[in-house]
């Protein structure tokens, strides 16, 4: 016997079924359109000459063909992110001549790697050091730190799969401590560029690099802070700065002329010697920063690491690739970051913002109506609390781009649009009319020429030793103690007090640059503004 079951669909149920079918159809249509758009995007980029693409455009082509399946860490599991990133983080070994340097018998690389990599003894002959880098293009472009490859004679890149390449420097940007190098390869693994603006304080991140020559090391932590300006990248004397990892506490409290752009992502993911130039990635495996520095009294991890935001790096790297150097726009002001002490010193009540101390003649700020004494309170509508709030925004732009700032003047705020100008001369400083004797007295120290034994001990060819430091003067305030060796002032070798007299009257825009060695053998290179 066959039973037949007649099903009668009531109109209301039929309507529901029809609606569901429409939803399914709409979903399929959306998926089809999305796929077509993705394919269309790929075809558009495919037709564009690869050499004319930015790194982001090149990556869009790459990841359209090689989609990532990394999931974010709802549960704390970083295995997918680590697996996606590790193959594209490289180990960089550099060889450089021990003869390069400042005329004082030791090179900046001796100072950098001697302090940071623990090579306290400076052997004769060619020196070697190491760091990390991140492949960002399948044809071999690698981002790293400027201080990793600066002045290197030979750069060897080791991939995670043990392949070895020789690299050439495409270009560097000391102002951000970034460098772009290139190896000859094809179909290389890359790390996907992320969006550092989207990084949130408290989110998980991974640091990937080669600390202590331990290849492909992954550490985890969180974003501890953003927009950190810690004053360790360069100055006008960028090419001879001491190790940016040194984080010595003997930092000058005097105003400095500094073109550095610092807006670091701070993390507590362990970063150690050799991590420099490596990747800071989110849990999706996206590159959000280039590890650059640590805050440490010992040269090793103490809980604070700093990475250059990738959104700032994108502009720098694309400029280097396209132009061979960075095309940077400038507002055309010198400013002082306000805090309680600065406000008291300037005799003003506001303790946040950037106090405009000087204007560049013919600069963008002057043309826009900014005045000396204005306080920059906002940039693009966002509050300005420290210099990094302005510098990173400007650092992403080109000459000719416009930026909106808000200034406080006579108790009221004014909105101004500044058109950025190309590199111009630094703001004019007041002429220093003081005699050599007056300037010498400002130092507040006494000196004696080095003996042969002292030259041998500190491995220098010239210098004077500090024999006395007087309270309240420059050497005392900046903690240059008795027993320190002064090797250069304003890049002039020092052997006597007469050399000091000559050097301190040869100022650069009122800046005094003193290079030397502390009694414990570590180097310093400080710049001071002489009023």
Automatic annotation (TrEMBL):
Residue ranges occupied by any PDZ domain in the UniProt entry: 332-398
PROSITE patterns hit by this protein: PDZ (PS50106)
Superkingdom to which the source organism belongs: Bacteria
Coiled-coil positions: none
Keywords associated with the record: Hydrolase, Protease, Repeat, Serine protease, Signal
SMART domains found in the cross-reference section: PDZ
PANTHER family named among the record's database cross-references: SERINE PROTEASE FAMILY S1C HTRA-RELATED (PTHR22939), SERINE PROTEASE HTRA2, MITOCHONDRIAL (PTHR22939:SF129)
Membership in a protein family: Belongs to the peptidase S1C family.
NCBIfam families: degP_htrA_DO (TIGR02037)
UniProt-recorded name of the protein: Trypsin-like peptidase domain-containing protein
The species this protein was found in: Mucilaginibacter defluvii
């Amino acid at each position: 016997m066959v039973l037949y079951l007649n099903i009668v669909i009531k109109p209301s149920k039929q309507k529901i079924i029809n609606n569901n079918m429409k939803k399914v159809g709409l979903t399929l249509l959306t998926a089809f359109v999305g796929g077509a758009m993705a394919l269309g995007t790929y075809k558009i980029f495919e037709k564009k000459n690869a050499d004319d693409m930015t790194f982001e455009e090149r990556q869009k082509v790459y990841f359209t063909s090689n989609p990532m399946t990394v999931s974010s860490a709802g549960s704390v599991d970083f295995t997918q992110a680590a697996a996606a990133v590790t193959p594209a983080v490289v180990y960089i070994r550099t060889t450089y001549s021990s003869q390069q340097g400042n005329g004082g018998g030791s090179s900046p690389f001796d100072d950098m790697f001697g302090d940071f990599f623990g090579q306290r003894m400076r052997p004769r002959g060619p020196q070697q050091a190491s760091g990390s880098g991140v492949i960002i293009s399948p044809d071999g472009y690698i981002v790293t730190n400027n201080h990793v490859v600066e002045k290197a004679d030979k750069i060897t890149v080791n991939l995670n799969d043990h392949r070895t390449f020789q690299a050439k420097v495409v270009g560097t940007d000391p102002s951000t401590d970034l460098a772009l190098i290139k190896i000859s390869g094809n179909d290389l693994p890359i790390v996907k560029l992320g969006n550092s603006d989207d990084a949130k304080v408290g989110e998980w991140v991974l640091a990937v690099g080669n600390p202590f020559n331990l290849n492909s090391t992954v550490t985890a932590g969180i974003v501890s802070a953003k927009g950190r300006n810690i004053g360790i990248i360069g100055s006008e004397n960028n090419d001879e700065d001491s190790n940016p990892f040194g984080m010595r506490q003997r930092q000058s409290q005097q105003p400095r002329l500094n073109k550095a752009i610092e807006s670091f992502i701070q993390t507590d993911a362990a970063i150690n010697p050799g991590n420099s130039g490596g990747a800071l990635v989110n849990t999706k495996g996206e590159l959000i920063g280039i590890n650059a520095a640590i805050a440490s009294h010992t040269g090793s991890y103490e809980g604070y690491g700093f990475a250059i935001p990738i959104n700032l790096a994108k502009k720098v790297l694309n400029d280097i690739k396209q132009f061979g150097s960075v095309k940077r726009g400038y507002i055309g002001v010198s400013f002082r970051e306000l805090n309680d002490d600065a406000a008291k010193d300037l005799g003003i009540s506001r303790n946040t913002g950037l106090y405009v101390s000087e204007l560049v003649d013919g600069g963008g700020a002057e043309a826009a109506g900014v005045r000396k004494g204005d306080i920059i309170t906002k940039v693009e509508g966002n509050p300005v609390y420290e210099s990094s709030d302005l510098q990173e925004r400007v650092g992403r732009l080109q000459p000719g781009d416009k930026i909106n700032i808000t200034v406080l003047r006579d108790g009221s705020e004014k909105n101004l649009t500044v058109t950025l100008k190309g590199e111009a001369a630094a703001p004019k400083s007041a002429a220093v009319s003081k005699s050599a004797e007056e300037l010498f007295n400002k130092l507040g120290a006494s000196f004696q020429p080095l003996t042969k034994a002292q030259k041998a001990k500190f491995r220098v060819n010239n210098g004077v030793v500090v024999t006395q430091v007087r309270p309240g003067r420059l050497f005392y305030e900046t903690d240059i103690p008795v027993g320190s060796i002064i090797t250069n002032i304003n890049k002039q070798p020092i052997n006597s007090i007469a050399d000091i007299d000559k050097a301190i009257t040869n100022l650069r825009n009122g800046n005094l640059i003193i290079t030397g060695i502390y009694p414990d053998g570590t180097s310093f290179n400080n710049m001071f503004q002489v009023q």
